[in-house]
Amino acid sequence: MFDKRITGVVSLNSLDYVEKIFSCYEKNEVVVLLRDIDDARIEMVGASSIIQPELVSGWFSSKYNTFRDDDTLAQIAFTSGTEGEPKGVLLTHRILSDVTKRLNEVMEVDSSIKEYVGVPANFSFGFGRFRAISSIGGSAYLPKNGFDPVEIQKMLSNKEINSISAVPSLWRVLLKNKAIFGNEANYLKWIEIGSQYMSRSEKEELKSLFPNAIIAQHYGLTEASRTTFLRIDNTEGELLESVGKAYGHTELKIDGNGRICIRGPHVSETLLKHGKPISNVDDERWFHTSDLGKLENGFLHYLGRADDQINCNGIKLNPDNIEREIREELKIKDGLAVGAISNDFTGESVLVAVKADANIDTDKLIETTYKILSSKGINGGSAAKFCLVNDFPLTNTNKVRRKALAELYTNKTAISIKQASYHEPRNDFELSLSVVWQGILKRDAIGIDDNFFALGGDSLTAVMAVHEMVQATGVEFELGDLFTNQTIRTLSEHVSKGEPRTLSSVVPLKKGENATPIFFVCGINLYQHLADALPSQNSVYGIYVAQEETLFKKILDGQESDISTIELSKAYADSILRYQPEGPYIVAGISFGGMIAIETAVALQKLGKIVEAVVMLDTILPQTVKRTLPKRSKLLFKSAYTSLKNAVAGKSITKIDIDSMRKRAYHRALKNYNKISGELNARVLLIKAEDRSEWGSGVSFESDYGWQDILGKKPEVYEVDGSHIEIITPPYNKVVADIIVNAITKS
């Protein structure tokens, strides 16, 4: 396969490992890095000899000429993959030289460097430090017992070292023990940080501790080592959240899927997969990584691995960022890891794992996590799980294996965390309700004072809960009972008092002062984030009407159902009038709810009431959507129809099935809506979502979604960043709230 002698070097954290590889370079041999002396890769690459290094630590001062601008193969490094056989990355001398030159130029190093290499020499980061230091005639120290802040402090005090290299997780250990450092910290001249995530506050803390050091962080992969550099010592503010810029002839771009693409002389263009060479780049020589990122003014912001990303209710979360925010809120350095686990309702849940010996206040942890998720438009009650573990599963480069972390929770190896405020059921009736809620909301324990909606419930899970509560207790609960009595304690009291059933519920989302109240239709908790963003002058309400329950009951029975738009709108109007007999009113709704808001306003005006405005949130009339990819549309429809047919055929109805059937009913109603039922003397606002990527490619829309033809007048059209549902969640909810307030207050 290769025209040069192949020598296998067994991986070992040792100076002898470094020496043996450099010796192979000088003899023009190709080095293949092996796991052990019986590694199957020996036969795969045709290695003719195997070297088992001896265990040696301490100082390394050998000078090797590592700068060779030729394209001959230098080494084959296998990625530390956790699934299947790792790929073999073919690295030429030109690639290795380019990396070393750029690194030394950015760090401004010279031959006086005496570095404490805190990363194992058999890791690509650690070996890269030895290559860089050797090339300029410096010295490097490999600690016998690994990274040790106490040893570092002593060596700085004795002026034995003036440089340190380590990954962020190790720097956190040092920062946790920063009190041991005194004036000797001023002697440190150079720092390199590996490409794991490190927060702005941690970088600022490091700058403060070592004020005279040149501090560089890199981002890269085995296939494209040290692609970017961030000079932390001369960077301020939000740019510290980035991983720097491309240097030399390296180039960056972000592809249509948000993934980082890299091009340049440092990129390995060939891989070994199953023993055969394959291309690692596209026709334009771009290497497409599995990392997510964004570019701002040339600075790369790393957003995590695509396969680690948490998709919670359509909102993408970076586990590194969630970890950082929790650590900063709780003022902790380590002992915490975040991953994703499957969730029937939200797609994926956020799993927060804590080491049992970390001494973290779990009640504060849960409260903080809920707060952070809420700021991103996610209900922590349904989207967050917590557990204790003895140790985190790690890769051989000490990165948390997030999928393995999820397996610990799923396999019950980890211990679930319960809040101290839990109040257990007092009798069999309350226990029955608790068991139903646990099954519906996928939670381990639910107390009698836990709020159904705060735990993650919504209108769809409420339908399922009521259905199962009736089966479990024999009590004829209705949907309105759950909206007005949201804890097991209040539900129990409601039943014991024999209170009358509720025909409809108007639920206050926010109490205001004297400004015109806003009534949201077709949802209650759905609008909570938008209500929170509206000013204190406006009272905000969500409405439930009994006609919705009729629709849901038919769906639970496996029946398709059509919606009477006029009947539903009159029911909403009646609910508003019972709650507040006189106007003026503002009526609003998202998607199908926007159309119902229009007809509810018409119904109110027919009764002589004043409607100040109607707000439609991304309400698209299906008949105005133009598609240029009919085959794609048919495929999507067929998939949805098959799923629906299976549900109706007798299989258990899930929340996803209910949602699909409800959306189909809404879609039919919107499609058949071609004329308003009466004159509307009110301002109409249409707030559109700018991000329509969920519709796929080949789809276009009329600028007003076709509403001018329906209304007989043009609505006031606004556009907001974010997708359909995102526009009512943070941070977009504040923009939408400002649009509503500014529009209704202007003369």
Would you write up a description of this structure?
The chain is an alpha/beta fold. The chain folds into three domains: 6-305, ANL, N-terminal domain (Rossmann fold, 3-Layer(aba) Sandwich), CATH 3.40.50; 310-416, 2-Layer Sandwich (GMP Synthetase, Chain A, domain 3), CATH 3.30.300; 503-745, Rossmann fold (3-Layer(aba) Sandwich), CATH 3.40.50. It contains 23 helices and 34 strands. The strands form seven sheets. The chain has an eight-stranded mixed sheet with strand order 4-8-7-9-10-11-12-13. A seven-stranded mixed sheet has the order 3-1-2-5-6-16-17. Strands 26-28-27-29-30-32-34 form a seven-stranded mixed sheet, with helices on both faces. Strand 22 and strand 23 (347-355) form a beta hairpin. The radius of gyration is 31 Å and the shape is elongated. The model is unreliable at 629-653 (pLDDT under 50).
Task: Quickly list its features.
747 residues, alpha/beta, Rossmann fold, GMP Synthetase, Chain A, domain 3, 3 domains, eight-stranded mixed β-sheet, seven-stranded mixed β-sheet, 34 strands, 23% strand, elongated
Low-confidence region ranges:
629-653
Q: What is the fourth-level CATH superfamily of the largest domain?
A: ANL, N-terminal domain
Radius of gyration: 31 Å
Walk across the major sheet and give the strand order: 4-8-7-9-10-11-12-13
Q: Fraction of residues in helices?
A: 25-40%
Main CATH class of the largest domain: Alpha Beta
Number of helices: 23
**Anisotropy-based shape:** elongated
**CATH domain fold name of the largest domain:** Rossmann fold
Number of spatially distinct domains: 3
